[in-house]
């Protein structure tokens, strides 16, 4: 009777994951929705909409060049009137201004007259200003002559209601669920009165500020309002009515008909945008239409019969949106892309059944995976889970590319992998429980990292070794022999235990392995038994942590009357043979090489140099993110070539630039070095390294080569 329960216990975590993911998807919190949208964005980046140059939509861009040639924004309204008239003469189908012209032109005669009156100007001058042409009137007349659309910005703050030119026909309860706004910031009444249409430029972005959908229609109070793209298409087609069709299976909008075009939308009136990459051919700079064209050239000819949207694309103006392609484009470009999509068809659609299908797929595949766990090896089951997740991703992408369907692959794909991971973790936990006895036995003798490696791969427990590039840290306490003779044994043991507790903690914190402790010395290594590409950086960080701890520890002991010496540290990097050395009855995981011996020699060299920490040049070169100072070239007994040694910059009180200048002079044998180091020693008497070089130079030394026993 126990085996069925054991099997259930094994797969229970997977079943709980499936249940939790299903509940999470039904609740659909913000992180889940954000992950789904990121998946849809990835589809667009992989396969953006291909721009069709024949689509009758263009943007007249008030770009940086136009502002440079024609003056800063906002332009006088008579210049906009010239632009509208120019487009009208070119025979465009419609002109839509992606501009909210909510205030009178600052150069309008009435405003100039008010300014003059406020400054006590002669009445004749104020009257002359009133007689000037009114640029707002010029633009209003231009809008009346050309099929045109002006814009308003919906808002939730009180404001004037815009004049809606479109009429709407509703088939069924279509307006239920539409987005609703309280009011709007409209263009001036004279522009609304003469323009042929009036459209909303509201472009609600998501929480991550990415524009993925646009409302085709919305509610302003209780009134229906069209988007700028819908209104521009209505005016261009000469249609008076926009038809709203309710969904056949319930209330809420299903499609919007504008003349001959039918746009599928969601119940809230919004439709998904499928963006193209940056296409310069979509835009015509405004200056090309307002300045005289070269002989034989007519930039406006290419706009004949097209719907033209006019907007600001110049740098520094806030009307920009972030797209799923991770591009930031001007708002007018987004409206143009929406209009292109309406005309071309092939809109993206999130089907009503999508969520149920995604949850069903997750449950079906997840339960199949759980049921097959005991029948298949873990690696096979994991491989099948990965293949199934890949198939889900590929299928969703294919549905997007071929049919414009937005199906979420993240829930079933990640859910499948998480389910497999939960069951695999449960099985691994059982295996780990069986290994705990082994860990408990070996943990008393070996470093935790070595225990873990040997537990995973017991076949690697052999007397042989392997060659690795590693880093080594050796420490020693100055004057320990005299200390041990002057302190009672029980106090000495307690002090050393506290000392090694801090030093070993620094080693383990840096990811090192404690090789051995001999008397007052500690040997640590980095880069084995586990691979650590940054072993040199870890070793230096460990050495600095040891220095910080031991400095405070020694000061505290000396305050108690114990003559506890400074800890000297040596760090080096190089190749070494590392492995289990010893007999079958007793072995020691350690490393042997010249680099190991050199670390011990560098630790001892601190006694001569007066430094707390000595680092080999090989270690310093392997730490490009740290700053080191050259100490000296050490001529070590038994080693032919001098050893270049360094010290971390943070341990040196002398300014780096001054020290570098002095040491460079010392290295090249410049007599000026004595003067420089003498001055530095006077300024920083606490810098032992500077004092050393000053003394050596005073005694007749010519360079930085120092012999160390």
TrEMBL record:
Query: In which organism is this protein found?
Result: Inquilinus limosus
In terms of domain of life, where is this protein from? Bacteria
Alphabetical GO biological process terms: cyclic nucleotide biosynthetic process; intracellular signal transduction
Q: What is this protein called?
A: Guanylate cyclase domain-containing protein
The Guanylate cyclase domain, residue ranges: 471-603
CDD domains, A to Z:
CHD (cd07302)
Q: What is the lineage of its organism?
A: Bacteria, Pseudomonadati, Pseudomonadota, Alphaproteobacteria, Rhodospirillales
Question: Would the keyword Membrane be found if you checked this record's keyword annotation?
Answer: yes
Q: Which SMART domains match?
A: CHASE2 (SM01080), CYCc (SM00044)
């Amino acid at each position: 009777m126990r085996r069925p329960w054991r099997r259930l216990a094994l797969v229970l975590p997977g079943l709980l994951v499936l249940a939790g993911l299903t509940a999470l998807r039904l609740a659909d919190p913000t992180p889940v929705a954000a992950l789904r949208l990121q998946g849809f964005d990835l589809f667009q980046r992989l396969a953006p909409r291909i721009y069709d140059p024949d689509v009758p939509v263009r943007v007249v861009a008030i770009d940086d060049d136009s502002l440079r040639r024609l003056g800063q924004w906002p332009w006088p309204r008579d210049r906009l009137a010239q632009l509208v008239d120019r487009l009208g003469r070119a025979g465009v189908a419609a002109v839509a201004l992606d501009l909210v012209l909510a205030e009178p032109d600052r150069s309008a005669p009435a405003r100039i007259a008010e300014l003059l009156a406020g400054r006590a100007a002669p009445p004749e001058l104020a009257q002359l200003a009133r007689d000037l042409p009114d640029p707002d009137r010029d633009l209003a007349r231009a809008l009346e002559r050309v099929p045109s659309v002006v814009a308003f910005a919906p808002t939730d703050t009180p404001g004037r209601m815009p004049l809606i030119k479109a009429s709407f026909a509703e088939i069924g309860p279509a307006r239920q669920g539409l987005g609703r706004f309280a009011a709007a910031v409209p263009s001036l009444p004279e522009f609304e009165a003469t323009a042929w249409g009036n459209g909303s430029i509201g472009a609600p972005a998501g929480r991550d500020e990415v524009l993925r959908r646009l409302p085709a229609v919305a509610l302003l109070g209780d009134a229906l309002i069209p988007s700028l793209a819908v209104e521009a298409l209505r005016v261009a087609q000469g249609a008076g009515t926009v038809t709203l069709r309710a969904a056949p299976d319930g209330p809420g909008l299903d499609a919007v008909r504008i003349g001959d075009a039918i746009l599928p939308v969601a119940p809230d009136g919004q439709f998904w945008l499928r963006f193209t990459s940056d296409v310069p051919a979509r835009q015509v700079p405004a200056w090309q239409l307002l300045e005289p064209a070269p002989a034989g050239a007519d930039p406006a000819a290419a706009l004949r019969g097209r719907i033209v949207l006019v907007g600001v694309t110049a740098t520094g103006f806030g009307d920009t949106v972030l797209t799923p392609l991770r591009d930031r484009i001007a708002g007018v470009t987004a409206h143009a892309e929406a209009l292109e999509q309406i005309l071309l068809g092939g809109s993206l659609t999130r089907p009503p059944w999508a969520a149920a299908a995604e949850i069903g797929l997750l449950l079906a595949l997840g339960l199949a995976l759980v049921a097959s766990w005991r029948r298949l090896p873990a690696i096979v089951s994991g491989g099948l889970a990965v293949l199934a997740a890949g198939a889900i991703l590929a299928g969703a992408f294919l549905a997007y590319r071929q049919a414009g369907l937005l199906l979420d692959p993240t829930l079933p794909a990640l859910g499948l992998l998480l389910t497999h991971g939960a069951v695999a973790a449960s099985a691994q936990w059982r295996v780990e429980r069986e290994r705990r006895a082994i860990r408990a036995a070996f943990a008393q003798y070996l470093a935790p990292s070595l225990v873990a490696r040997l537990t995973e791969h017991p076949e690697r427990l052999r007397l042989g070794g392997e060659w690795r590039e590693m880093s080594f840290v050796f420490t020693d306490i100055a004057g320990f022999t005299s200390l041990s003779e002057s302190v009672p044994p029980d106090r000495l043991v307690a002090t050393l235990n506290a000392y090694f507790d801090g030093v070993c903690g620094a080693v383990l914190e840096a990811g090192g392995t404690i090789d051995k402790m001999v008397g007052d010395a500690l040997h640590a290594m980095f880069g084995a038994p586990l691979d650590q590409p940054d072993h040199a950086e870890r070793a230096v960080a460990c050495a600095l942590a040891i220095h910080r701890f031991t400095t405070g520890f020694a000061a505290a002991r000396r305050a108690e009357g114990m003559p506890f010496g400074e800890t000297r540290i040596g760090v080096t990097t190089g190749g070494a043979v590392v492995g289990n050395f010893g007999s079958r009855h007793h072995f020691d995981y350690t490393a042997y090489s010249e680099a190991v011996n050199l670390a011990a020699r560098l630790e001892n060299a601190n006694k001569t140099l007066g430094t707390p920490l000595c680092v080999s040049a090989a270690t310093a070169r392997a730490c490009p993110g740290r700053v080191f100072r050259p100490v000296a070239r050490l001529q070590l007994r038994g080693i032919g070539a001098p050893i270049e040694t360094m010290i971390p910059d943070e341990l040196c009180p002398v300014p780096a630039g001054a020290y570098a200048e002095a040491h460079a002079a010392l290295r090249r044998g410049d007599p000026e070095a004595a003067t420089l180091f003498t001055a530095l020693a006077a300024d920083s008497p606490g810098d032992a390294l500077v004092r050393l070089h000053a003394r050596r130079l005073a005694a007749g030394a010519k360079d930085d080569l120092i012999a160390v026993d």
